[in-house]
Amino acid sequence: MSIEQEVFGSGVAVVTGAGAGIGSGIARRLGQLGMHVVVTDIAGDRAEAVAAAIRAQGGRAEAQTLDVSRPAELDRLAADLFRRHGAVKLLVNNAGIETIGFSWEVPAERWETTLNVNIHGAVHGVRAFVPHMLKAGQPAWIANLASVGSFGVMPTQTAYIMSKHAVQSFSECLFLELQMAKAPIRVSSVIPGMLKTSIFDEAGGKGEPPAASHHRKVMRELMSTYGMDLDEGCQRIVAQIAEGRFWVSTQPEMTTGMIAGRVDFLTRQTDPTLSEQARHLLES
Ligand SMILES: NC(=O)c1ccc[n+]([C@@H]2O[C@H](COP(=O)([O-])OP(=O)(O)OC[C@H]3O[C@@H](n4cnc5c(N)ncnc54)[C@H](O)[C@@H]3O)[C@@H](O)[C@H]2O)c1
């Protein structure tokens, strides 16, 4: 039996933002392995479609409408699931959105939404679920979606990049806190390189400036040309979480490349500079 089958062959998993993209891929993979998957998304119809697809393959899944930027909704879901199932083995804080534009041009509302979904979504997922996990006293796993962007910078994707730096440091501190508390809970920082998803499809709110629309279009094309197949990437993610790794990468060479660039920048303490790829992207 493979480690992932052994670890994730049973029990309850909760995946946020699982109505599309990486969340849906992770949910489908967990369903194949035999978990009861709670497929959650702000778009309830999309969550239901993914849950139905898991059930159609012989798996077990339920859909829940959940906006991760509303802490009370996460509290309610955690209480309900522990009451009904007794335990949640895996929580994947996956929901995240992109936002593009000069920092001073992104509307206040979009800044709030981006930071709330990307940072507070993971924070309040942990705050809502961990006390129940500790009480249940069974081994559990938490995976937070960071990004290769957690280790670099990209002007005009500032809100997103900032949020991913924050999620990475949150996961590192959380790992150590759970160790201090002697909790049987593993934390993984999931670092997708680039997987084919719809993250660049939606307009960044009303009145997106033309330069931001252009940037979004270029990123979308890059993703569809060079992105990794979604299911392949999600299988890699689930396998590494099951192995209990803190660092979970879909394309490890991208992760190490970004980290090497960051280490060099922090060591030399020069002014920030654009990487070759970023320059190419922004000048295209
Ligand atoms: N696709 C990549 O290459 C890539 C790379 C690095 C990191 N990531 C991270 O992976 C995660 C998933 O990204 P994706 O590419 O699959 O995106 P996606 O846009 O394809 O899917 C995101 C899902 O999250 C849902 N969502 C949005 N706001 C929500 C909210 N407030 N509450 C609950 N659900 C909400 C959307 O409805 C959608 O179904 C994100 O955290 C993203 O930052 C993705």
Automatic annotation (TrEMBL):
<dbReference type="InterPro" id="IPR036291">
    <property type="entry name" value="NAD(P)-bd_dom_sf"/>
</dbReference>
<comment type="similarity">
    <text>Belongs to the short-chain dehydrogenases/reductases (SDR) family.</text>
</comment>
<dbReference type="GO" id="GO:0016491">
    <property type="term" value="F:oxidoreductase activity"/>
</dbReference>
<dbReference type="InterPro" id="IPR002347">
    <property type="entry name" value="SDR_fam"/>
</dbReference>
<keyword id="KW-0560">Oxidoreductase</keyword>
<dbReference type="Pfam" id="PF00106">
    <property type="entry name" value="adh_short"/>
</dbReference>
<protein>
    <submittedName>
        <fullName>NADP-dependent 3-hydroxy acid dehydrogenase YdfG</fullName>
    </submittedName>
</protein>
